[in-house]
Amino acid sequence: MFLNRFFATSLCAVSVLSASPAYAAHSIEGLVKDAKGAPVKNAKVFVHGSTLVVTTDQSGRFKLTEQMKHIEELHVVASGFNHASVKLSENITSYNIVLSPSLIERIDVTATPLHGSTLESATPISVLSDQELKNKHASTLGETLKAELGVHSSYYGPVSSTPIIRGLDGPRVLIAQNGLDVGDASRVGPDHVVSTETSTVKQIEVLRGPATLFYGSGAIGGVVNVVDNRVPRELERSSEWQYSFGTVADESELSFALNGGAEQALSGKDIAWHVDAFYRDSSDYDVPADPELHVDEDEEEHAEHAEDGHGSFTLANSASRSKGGTVGASVLLDNGFVGVSVGYLDRLYGIPGHAHAHEEHDEHEEHEEHEEHEEHEEHADEHEGHDDHDEHGEEGFVKGDMRQTRVQLISELTFKNSWITGLNTKFGVTNYQHQELEFDGIGGVEVGTQFNNDAWELRSDMLLADLNDWHGALTFDIKSSDFEAIGEEAFTPPSKTKSYAIGLLEEKHFDNVLVQLGARAEQVSIDSDLYSFDFSPVSLSAGLVYDFASGYNIAASYTHSSRAPSAGELLSYGPHIGTRSFELGAIFDSIDGATSLIESDMVEETSNNIELSLRKFEGDVGFVVNAFFNQVDDFYYQANTGEELDELPVYRYEARDAEFYGVEAQWIWQANQDLKITVQADSINGKLTSGEYLPRIPPTRLGTTFDYELENTSIELSVMHHFEQDKTAAMETTTDSYSMVDIKVNHYLPLAGMDTTLFFKINNLFDEEARVHSSFLKNDTLLPSRSFVVGIRGMY
C-alpha cells in the first residue's frame, strides 16, 4: 500500500489541486485546563492534517470553524504540559481537554513536513526555544548547541564553530534556516562561519541521526534547523530587544525584533511584517594559559608557565565583528499566508591559528587595534592600502570577511480538497561571499582567497488527505549550488551541484502505536571543468512509537540512507590553511595529481542506522534514553598519507567502511516547586570497521544542572565534565579531561509595560584550562577564561 501510494500520488499531484469540493463547515469549541481544573491560556490547538492553528484565550477557551472534511483529530500543545491528541466525534462540537504536567515538553517541530512533536518522532529530536534558547545563546551556532544531547562543537576558536552531531559534521550535517539550506561554505572547512544568526530566532531544532527523508544527501548525519519569524505566519504586534556585555573578549551585543501589521490593508487581507537586526563586536579573547603549550608537553613546564602568566594571555587574531538585519512581510489569506523576506549578514573575524598568543596590550594599544579592526569591513577593493599595525599581523594574520544576502519566499496554504489538504512551499535564493584577508607585508591587507556560492532551493510539501487513516506528505525538492574558490587557498575547483528529489512520508495510529514510514529518491549531479559525476541516492525509513503506559513511550526506527559525496570530497587538490593540510580529493591517487581512478569508481556513501529510545514524560520525574548504531559503507574521510607538501601534511579522501554507535541519556527531577535537577550524559564511538579510530570524535560527557526558581528570579548552576579522549586516530594526540562550571541568573521585572529580564552569567567559573578534542585548533588554543556577562532584555 505504501509504495502504491508513493507512485500514485506522484502522478496525480498536479491534477488533484484543481478538484476542490466544498464540505459543510465544522464548528468546534472547547476548554483547555490542567489537572487541577485551572484554565491553560496560550495553548496551541492544531488541526491534524492542515496548517490551521488557534490559541486559547485567558480563560483557556478556543473556537474554530473550518470547511474541511478531514477534521478528525486535534493536537493541543502548551508550555509545561504534556501534548494531548483529541479524536473528534461527528455528534460532539464542544470538548473539555485536560493537560497533564510534563517535564519533557512535546514541542511542535517545523523541520518535518507533518509537523510532529519531539515525543511523537521515532527518531530523536531536540528543540531549543523560549527562555532556554535565550540562556544558551552564544555568538556561534556551534557554541549555542554544544550542550545538547549528542551535539558537540567543531570550535575553530570563538568566531567559527559548527555543530557536530554524533561525531559527524561537514557535508553530513545540514544547517537549514526555516527548512532551507543556508547556502554558505561552512561545510567546506571549519574556519568558515555558519551564515545564520541565533540572537533573533524563535527556536532551533536538532534532528539527530539520518534526516535524509526530509532533507536529502546532505543530512545523512542530522539537521540543525534555525526557525525565525522573518516571514510572518500571523498578525502579531510585539517587540523584543537585548543588550549584553562580556568580559572575556570585551564583547558587546545588541539585537532587536519587531512584529506588526495592518488589518485588511490589501484587498481586504491582513498584512503582517517583521524587522530584526543585530550587532556584535569583540576583541581577542582571554585564555587561562599560554595556548602555545601543546597538550603533549611536559606537565611541570606547563604548570610553571601557567603560573607565570595565568590570566594574562589572549588568543591572537580572534577578534570579530558581526552585523545583519532582515525585513519581511506576509499577506494573510483565509486559507494560509504568502510572504517574503530579505536578509543581510556581514561577519569580519580573525581566523586563529595563523598567529601566536601574545601578552595583553595596554588599554591604548587595545583601543588602536580595535579601531583598526573595524576598518576591515570594507569590500575587497577597499582593503588595498589599508593600514593595520597590530603586531601579530607581521606574523601573517588571516581574517575572514563574509557577506551573505538571502531572499526567502514562504507560503502555507490549506485546501478544501479530497486529495490534498495543504501545500507548504519554500523558496530561497542566497548570494554568499567569503574573502580571506592576509597581511601584505607593507602595512596593508590583500585578498588571499575568495569563496563564492550562488545557491537556490525550492521545496514543496504537499499534505495528503487521510487514506485508510494513513496521514502523509509528498515532498518535492530542487536545489542548485554554483561554488567557486579563487586564490591561494583554492583547493577546490569551481563546480556546480544540482539535485532533484521526491519523497513520501506516511504515518498511522494503531491504537497506542504510531507507525511512520518514508521513502525518498534523488538525482545529484556535480559538474566541474574536467569532471562530471552523477549519483542516485535512495533512502528508506520505518519507525514506530509505542505508548505502552501512561506517560511512557518507546520508539524504534531503521533508516537506510545514501549520500552523494560533496564536490570538495571528490575534487579537492591544494593547501587548506584552515586545517593546515594539503587536501587530495577521492579521484586523485597520488600527490602529483595523477588520476588512475575514473568517475564511475566514485560511489555513494550508504548508512544503515538503528535507533532505540525510551521516554518518560509525565509526573515529577522524566527521562529520555537513546541508543544508536550506524553502519556506514564507503564512508568518505581524510586519511593521513604520511607525505608532506610545502610543509603541510597530505590528507586524501578515502571511502572506507565505518561504524558509529553510542548512547544518550537525560534524567529530570522536579524536586519541589522551586528546584529542578537535570542529569545528562552522552557517549559516541566512531571507527573504521578495520579497527582504527576516526579522528576528532568527541569524548564522553556527564553533566548536571540545578534550576532554582524564586518569585522573580531564576538561578541555574551547570557542571559539565568532559572525560579524557584516548580513542584516537593515527598521529592524533589524546585530550585531557576537564569540567566546565557555569552560572546563569535571571531577574524578571516589569519596566514601562514590558516584560524585562536582567541577566548575569559566569562562564568557566574556575578558569579551567580546557581543549576541545573535536577542534582542528585543539593543540593551539584553549577554551576562554572565566567570563562575566551582564545584560538586559525586554519583550512587549
Task: Write a concise synopsis of the structure shown.
By secondary structure, this protein is mainly beta. A hairpin with a 6-residue loop joins strand 5 (73-77) and strand 6 (84-87).
Could you describe the 3D structure shown?
With 796 residues, this protein is mostly beta strands. The protein has eight helices and 42 strands. The relative contact order is 0.11. The protein is 8% helix and 52% strand. The strands form six sheets. It has a 22-stranded antiparallel beta barrel. The protein has a five-stranded mixed sheet with strand order 8-13-14-11-12.
How is the secondary structure organized here?
Layout: H1 2-16, E1 26-34, E2 44-47, E3 53-55, E4 61-66, E5 73-77, E6 84-87, E7 94-99, E8 125-129, H2 130-136, H3 141-145, E9 151-153, E10 163-165, E11 173-177, E12 180-181, E13 203-208, H4 212-215, E14 222-227, E15 238-246, E16 251-266, E17 269-282, E18 286-287, H5 299-309, E19 313-314, E20 320-333, E21 336-350, E22 358-359, H6 363-374, H7 380-383, E23 398-414, E24 420-439, E25 445-467, E26 470-487, E27 495-510, E28 513-528, E29 532-535, E30 538-549, E31 552-563, H8 567-571, E32 573-576, E33 581-584, E34 605-616, E35 621-645, E36 648-670, E37 675-688, E38 701-709, E39 713-722, E40 738-751, E41 754-763, E42 787-795
Parallel strand pairs: 1-7, 11-14, 33-36
Antiparallel strand pairs: 1-4, 2-3, 2-5, 5-6, 8-13, 9-10, 11-12, 13-14, 15-16, 15-42, 16-17, 17-20, 18-19, 19-22, 20-21, 21-23, 23-24, 24-25, 25-26, 26-27, 27-28, 28-29, 28-30, 30-31, 31-34, 32-33, 34-35, 35-36, 36-37, 37-38, 38-39, 39-40, 40-41, 41-42
